[in-house]
Amino acid sequence: MYPTAFRIKEEPMPNLVDLLGQISLFAKLTMAVAIVAFGLAAGYVFRPTEQKLALMRPISLAAIFATVSGLLGGWIAVLASTAATPDGHLPVASLYRGIAESLTVGFVSFGLLAAAWMLVAVGGLRRHAAS
User: Fold this and answer.
1) Which of 13, 31, 37, 59 is the most exposed place for a label (fewest CB within 10 A)?
2) What is the tally of structural domains in the chain?
3) What distance, in Å, lies between the first and last C-alpha atoms of the chain?
4) Which of helix, strand or coil describes residue 89?
């Protein structure tokens, strides 16, 4: 269909588990904050107390700030690798892969945070139904 000059080299698309294995320690620590928020929310579903709800608010705020910091850190790493090349040009495939790896942090962290607040809502329903 396309001339030979316009053929695109097909590479398999990495799955989420592969991307998680390749990200930096900073990105993993960033996602750990969101995992803590999710764990606290899971605990709130089973035993909804006012103390857990009061702790959930600052932890979720910390997860938001950590996620934004992780996203910006990933983008900084991608842009720094562009400047580190001898001619200042980074292959487009490497650029897109770096951006995808940095966006993985936001995808996982904000997804965990959204699920955590859904669990808090369920715990709130259970708490009000019990009273």
Assistant:
1) 13
2) 1
3) 67
4) coil
The pTM of the full predicted model, rounded to 2 decimals, is: 0.78
Tokens of 107: 């995808």
Closest by CA to 8, choosing from 96, 93, 89, 99, is: 93
2 domain-assigned: no
Domain housing 80: 22-130
Burial 90-116 (b: 16+ CB within 10 A, else e): beeeeeebbeebbebbbebbbebbeeb
